[in-house]
Specification:
The complex is a heterodimer of chains A (about 110) and B (about 120). Chain A contains no helices and 11 strands. With about 110 residues, chain A is mainly β. In chain B, a hairpin with a 2-residue loop joins strand 7 and strand 8. Classes of the chains: A mainly beta (about 110), B mainly beta (about 120).
Chain lengths: ~110, ~120
């Protein structure tokens, strides 16, 4: 069964304090790993898709990387506006549905 | 450009009352449509998805049902709400099939917060 586990559940950082969020997955034939950002009371907003081990993608202070078993979302010198819940999801070759993790709630204090 | 609309944004309903949440997509044709529920402010649980008009797949047995009367319209319904139906409901759409890399990004609506009292 496809499964996604994110850690930590919550992360509190000071502004400028870099860190990483982890997404561990088991899937039958990875067809894409997705990162989303969700602000309170709003729908998730797409950030990145990664397809194969070794792939990396960047957007402003965020960088996503992928191995055969996990993905990391690195946040460099975060700002308070980066505070949100970050969701990871995978799509395998069983029906094509996205399986989401529980998310990491990031709080960046000034 | 494509947009997704979901309403109502907030709903407070008594136990046993009916429910209707509506979602429409603009700027695309024949989208895949999805209903998710997010409980406890975190994980997303897929409830229903549809690859075409009148085609509904249910992921979890429950008190809810879904319909797709038009190509870009997706409706989530219940005849009698339960307390456990409370949550944040999200509609989403995607293009393409599972065989098309890059065509399967889900775009979400703003969500509907349902409180059942």
């Amino acid at each position: 069964e496809d499964q996604v586990t994110q850690s930590p559940e919550a992360l509190r950082l000071q502004e400028g304090e870099s860190s990483s969020l982890n997404c561990s997955y088991t899937v039958s034939g990875l067809r894409g790993l997705f990162w989303y950002r969700q602000d309170p009371g709003k729908g998730p907003e797409f950030l990145f898709t990664l397809y194969s081990a070794g792939e990396e993608k960047e957007k402003e202070r965020l960088k996503a990387t992928l191995t055969k078993k996990e993905s990391f979302l690195h946040i460099t010198a975060p700002k308070p506006e980066d505070s949100a819940t970050y969701l990871c999801a995978v799509r395998g070759n069983q029906g094509g549905k996205l399986i989401f993790g529980q998310g990491t709630e990031l709080s960046v204090k000034p | 450009s494509q947009t997704i609309h979901q309403w109502p944004a907030t709903l407070v309903q008594p136990v046993g009352s009916p429910l209707s949440l509506e979602c429409t997509v603009e700027g695309t044709s024949n989208p895949n449509l999805y209903w998710y529920r997010q409980a406890a402010g975190r994980g997303l649980q897929l409830l229903f998805y549809s690859v075409g008009i009148g085609q509904i797949s249910s992921e979890v047995p429950q008190n809810l049902s879904a319909s797709r009367p038009q190509d870009r319209q997706f409706i989530l319904s219940s005849k009698k709400l339960l307390l456990s139906d409370s949550g944040f409901y999200l509609c989403a759409w995607s293009t393409g099939t599972s065989g098309s890399f890059g065509a399967n990004v889900l775009t979400f609506g703003a969500g509907s917060r349902l409180t059942v009292l």
